[in-house]
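Section 5: illustrative case.
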């Protein structure tokens, strides 16, 4: 048997303290869950808008690339594309929402958007437009990836927070409430027994001190 279930005043005090702490933790977790849900709604709206922007940007980029291929030929466009750098410079930062780290793409990275990696004399304007369109689409893809990662992180932390809150609300808090009720009932029962015992002792003592009147008379010869 758990020694904390023994009906003592110390265990009653400990149970009350832990119950108050569990209720406070439950309230904090519930507030955290509400904040995360509100943030998730905002980020989800950003994700939906960015997804639409990405579809539009990819459509424009594909159209521009198609025009460039018609004017210059597929092989020539493919040859020019080999000289364009594939990497993208981006700095990922993080912001914290109730302990949940959400990624942010920094805009402080300096990128020379006017850099040209192919011979302008042997290409057409349509190729320039295709390159700019795909660069824009690439930036939106990076932003969408960060937002989608934020959505996944928020969903994960909401589930964890809900799970902890459920454990407190359905297991821990009822356990301490039952323990407090049990200890209180046992202590009250013990006090009633002690009171009854004292009354019996007091009654017995009073009877022992009461003498019959005949015993108080002296008989003289």
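Designed sequence:
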């Amino acid at each position: 048997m758990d020694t904390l279930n023994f009906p003592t005043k110390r265990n009653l005090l400990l149970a009350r303290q832990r119950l108050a702490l569990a209720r406070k933790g439950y309230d904090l977790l519930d507030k955290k869950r509400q904040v995360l849900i509100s943030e998730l709604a905002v980020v989800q709206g950003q994700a939906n808008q960015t997804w639409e922007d990405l579809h539009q940007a990819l459509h424009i980029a594909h159209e521009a690339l198609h025009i460039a291929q018609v004017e210059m030929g597929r092989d020539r466009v493919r040859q020019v594309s080999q000289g364009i750098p594939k990497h993208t410079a981006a700095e990922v930062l993080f912001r914290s929402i109730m302990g949940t780290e959400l990624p942010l793409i920094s805009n402080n990275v300096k990128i020379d958007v006017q850099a040209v990696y192919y011979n302008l004399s042997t290409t057409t304007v349509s190729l320039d437009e295709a390159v700019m369109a795909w660069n824009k689409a690439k930036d939106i893809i990076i932003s969408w990836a960060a937002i989608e990662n934020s959505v996944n992180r928020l969903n994960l932390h909401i589930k964890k927070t809900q799970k902890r809150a459920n454990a407190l609300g359905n297991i821990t808090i009822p356990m301490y409430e039952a323990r407090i009720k049990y200890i209180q009932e046992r202590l009250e029962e013990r006090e009633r027994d002690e009171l009854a015992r004292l009354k019996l002792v007091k009654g017995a003592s009073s009877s022992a001190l009461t003498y019959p009147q005949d015993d108080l008379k002296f008989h003289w010869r």
